């Protein structure tokens, strides 16, 4: 079972790493250090995908509510 858990962790972590790379490439192409300075902040599909990947990596795809 531990091996299966490692595979799950890898899958979620790989997805997050991929989304971080995409987000950083977008920021670089627009010469921004942060999404907060971007005019497309609220409607950005890249940022939404990144946020989803962060959330899924935190809960390993289990769904449910997001709690701090």
Describe this structure as you would to a colleague:
This protein has one domain. Helices cover 63% and strands 0% of the residues. With 68 residues, the protein is mostly helical. It has helices spanning 2-29, 45-59. The mean pLDDT is 84.
Oligomer: single chain
What portion of residues belong to β-strands?
under 5%
Please give the share of residues in helix. 55-70%
> What structural category arises from helix and sheet content?
mainly alpha
Provide mean pLDDT, rounded.
Answer: 84
Show unreliable segments: none
| Tally of structural domains | 1
**Main sheet characteristics:** none
Q: Compute the gyration radius: what is it?
A: 14 Å
Would you count the extended β strands for me?
0
- How large is the count of helical segments? 2
Order of helices and strands: HH
Q: What overall form do the CA principal axes indicate?
A: elongated
Question: Ends: how far apart?
Answer: 28 Å
């Amino acid at each position: 079972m531990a091996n299966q858990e490692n595979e799950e962790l890898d899958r979620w972590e790989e997805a997050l790493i991929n989304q971080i790379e995409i987000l950083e490439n977008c920021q670089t192409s627009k010469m921004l250090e942060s999404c907060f300075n971007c005019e497309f902040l609220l409607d950005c599909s890249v940022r939404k995908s990144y946020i989803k990947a962060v959330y899924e990596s935190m809960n390993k795809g289990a769904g449910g509510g997001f709690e701090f």
